[in-house]
Target: CRISPR-associated endonuclease Cas1
Amino acid sequence: MSTPRKGGDARRRLAAPTLAMLPRIADSLSFLYLDMVRVVQDDTGVCAQIQAGDRTDLVYLPTAALSCLLLGPGVSITTPALTTLARHGTTVVCVGAAGVRTYAGILPDSLTTHWLELQTSAWADPDRRLHTARRMYEMRFADADLPNTVDLDQLRGMEGQRMKALYKILAQQHGIGRFRRNYHPDQWDTQDPVNLALSAANSCLYGIVHAALLALGLSPALGFVHAGTQHAFVYDIADLYKAETTLPLAFALHQSPHPEQEARRRFRDNLRLLRLLPRIVRDTQHLLTPEATTATDHSERHDVDMVHLWDPKKGILPAGVNYAGGDR
Model:
């Protein structure tokens, strides 16, 4: 009698969905951006209909290999197509041109909660939240060897000095006088070109970070450095990239008559979206992964079922088991 049970258990384990079966979010096809197409479901699969003069070209989407589909301007999608994407565990995000704005996201039921659980557990523990915030500041200082005695208040001060020094260097490179970051939404039209371009470019960066966080199933609201806004974690992650992306771009537009429009256009043209998104994913996963973990690839977990039970003493327990005792 024991042999059939073992065989049945093995078959159930093989049939049960696990994270190893999901497409890796770090794969080259993790993110696909579309614009000016109609996405439909036909007898073969999900395809993008592209109108080319009098003919309609079809491009079939690799739904089983996609982690996130970005729908840009001019895209329409049918309910059957959305159903297929959800069944394959693909996150669908409505974005602006080249993904520089994020408006809404549709998360599939099959999306793992692994990264969300790591985020919330670190956010809810004051010590771990402080540690994660410190790691964020350390990432901004590149290879600088920061002593363990440096507290968060000192890190904020060091970050402020770093940004001032960067402002000064960029201002000198472009022949600008003393620059001061100035952001007042109620006085938008009175801002200088650099500030206008920087605000516009930062908003584009926020949209890309937002899309990446949604693709991971994370909460954009639970930040470690920022707080009090639905985009707190978006601001946390975006701050890691401003010094190399939006700041140089903004200073380069100091003489532009239309700095906001130029900043958005150049950001879209030069960012190479499909390279930045995987980088954001990797950096975010690195921040949320406990340092004790020695695995080199944190993009997913292969050791747990997608659905499990939680116990405060025993940790993760298998689901689908009758715990009443006796013969199960």
User: Anything to note?
Assistant: DSSP finds ten helices and ten strands in the chain.
